[in-house]
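Final report, Chapter 2: Outcomes

The project's central promise was a pipeline that accepts a single protein chain and returns its three-dimensional structure in a standardized token representation, suitable for archiving and comparison. That pipeline is now operational. To close this chapter, we reproduce one record exactly as it appears in the project archive, with the input sequence first and the structure output second.
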Amino acid sequence: ARDLQAAGCSTDYISDAQLLQTRVADGALVTPGGGRYRAIVVPATRHMPVETLAHLLVLQQGGGAVIYAAAPEDVPGLGRLEERRAQFRTLRDGLVVPHPPSPDRSGIAAP
């Protein structure tokens, strides 16, 4: 968030519960309270619930801008772990995430 703010972008935070109620309307992401956003930026995170990842993909497929710093790695918790991991992997395979920065740290992705 600091990097975005330093670049002149305003930021906000959203919970998983609010995110699950967010929809796309006229290319904007619209939250339950009526807030309109141009994009959701998902920071690098190790764990993400299957439901959250699935809804982010629905928003993206509906024309909403969803930007991932990195693909999430796994699901949280141990209940129905293998079932949820299988669902998660299927969803994660559909993500579009940026390439890691090149070794010279220029910010230009290496091929």
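Archive annotation: Residues 100-111 have pLDDT under 50 and may be disordered.
This record, like all others produced under the grant, will remain available to the consortium after the project formally closes.
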